[in-house]
Amino acid sequence: MSDQLTELESKLDQLQQDALGAIAEADSLEAIEKLRLRFLGKKGELSVVLKGMGKLEAGDRPRIGSLANEVKTAVQSALDGAKTRMERSALEAQLASETIDVTMPGDYRPQGRRHPLNSTIDRLLDILVGLGYTVASGPEMETDYYNFESLNTPPDHPARDMQDTFYLPDGNLLRTHTSSVQIRYMENNTPPIRVVAPGRVYRRDTVDATHSAVFHQLELLAVDENLTFGDLKGTVKTFLREIFGEIPVRFRASYFPFTEPSAEVDVQWQGKWLEVMGCGMVDPNVLKAVGYDPEKVTGFAAGLGIERFAMVLHQMDDIRRLYSSDLRFLRQF
Ligand code: DAH
After folding, report:
1. Which of 64, 93, 181, 196 could form a disulfide with 128 if both were Cys (CB 3.0 to 4.6 A apart)?
2. For residue 2, how far is its CA from the centre of ligand 1 (angstroms)?
3. What pLDDT is attached to residue 91?
4. For residue 71, how far is its CA from the centre of ligand 1 (angstroms)?
5. pLDDT number for residue 274
């Protein structure tokens, strides 16, 4: 056996030992890749050792060749084994860290709900839209003209006392009722008209269990040829029975500047007569104010307080609860 042969054999032995030792200690996939390059790479240690084969006698070469193959296989399988181990333990670590404990209590997600005022508005609108009405709106800051004058309520009219409001320095005011939307709508549309306008209104009232300086109204207006008080009654009764069920409804003669004749409507609710809205045939002066001919068209109108409906339907005793943002109260709806 030549010296070269022995030397190469021991170098290969050493290489295998070094490689297996280093692989055993490697602790990451990157480290293993580095070791692969170091030992088995094109310029790796095994290639360097094998360069020495040139000096061997031809008869010795096969022996070194097969030994080199064994070394290479051993190192390669050690690398593969280490790689598999490491991939598996990375996966296990990931699975362990992402485990869901299904017995943990869930997150509490507070659920929102519609405010009782909004749900009442929606309910009233649904019914009227079903009767063929379109929803309209107007500004909360109004001119004296739209809030009073055009509604047949001139400056010295006593009805103004009942609707004292908040005036702005420029003479405008916060609307006292949604009736102003009647005028704005009629100015921009021609009969036939079927319109409903919900919205916020303002009054200089002392706040108590049934009064608020800001509240909501819903206005109804129909203008067409040949509309009669019978149409008004039919519409109002149908509307109220949709809400309250088959209950007695009564019309009491009343007065509003913008309707003639006028009426207030009561429903019998839980044994008591309860006033729920004002209504009437649109006064000819109002029709004239928007350029309609009262000889050709007639109209009926109605107005109601939305809080009133919300309170009756939900058995509330104090209007202020509707504006309190008290969750204990609001969660009941
Ligand atoms: N605007 C009246 C108020 O605020 C309510 C009202 C009464 C509206 C009769 C109407 C109506 O359209 O016809 O007290």
Report:
1. 196
2. 122
3. 92
4. 102
5. 92
Other residues' Cβ atoms within 10 Å of the Cβ of residue 246: 6
d(CA 148, CA 160): 8
Cβ burial, residue 303 (10 Å; 0-12/13-18/19+): buried
| Cβ count near 268 (within 10 Å) | 13
Buried-state track 91-125, b at ≥16 Cβ within 10 A, e below 16: eeeeeeeeeeeeeeeeeeeeeeeeebbeebbeebb
CA distances (Å), 299 to each of 78, 233, 253, in order?
A: 97, 12, 18
Beta carbon of 279 within 6 Å of any ligand 1 atom: yes
**In this structure, which residue's CA is closest to atom 5 in ligand 1?**
303
Q: Which of 198, 280, 200, 277 is nearest to 243 (CA)?
A: 277
Predicted confidence (pLDDT) per residue in 231-245, tens digit: 999 999 999 999 999
Q: Which residue has the higher pLDDT, 203 or 52?
A: 203
Instruction: Tell me the DSSP string of 284-329.
Output: HHHHHHTT--TTT-EEEEEEEEHHHHHHHHTT-S-GGGGGS--HHH
Q: Nearest Cα to 331, choosing from 314, 317, 318?
A: 314
Query: Ligand 1 centre and the CA of 122: distance in Å?
Result: 20
Query: pTM value?
Result: 0.70
Ligand 1 mutation pick, 148, 162, 177, max ligand atoms within 8 A of CB:
177
Where do the structural domains in the chain lie, given as residue ranges? 3-98, 116-330
317 CA from centroid of ligand 1 (Å): 24
How far is Cα 170 from Cα 86, in angstroms, rounded to an integer?
80
CB of residue 219 inside a 6 A radius of ligand 1: yes
Identify whether 192 is preceded by a cis peptide bond (ω within 30 of 0).
yes
Cis, peptide link before residue 62, omega less than 30° from 0: no
Ligand 1 atom closest to the CA of 300, numbered from 1 = 13
CB atoms within 10 A of CB 175: 27
- In angstroms, rounded to a whole number, what is the distance separating the alpha carbons of residues 205 and 22? 90
- Ligand 1, atom 6: nearest CA belongs to which residue? 303
Q: Which CATH architecture has domain 116-330?
A: 2-Layer Sandwich (3.30)
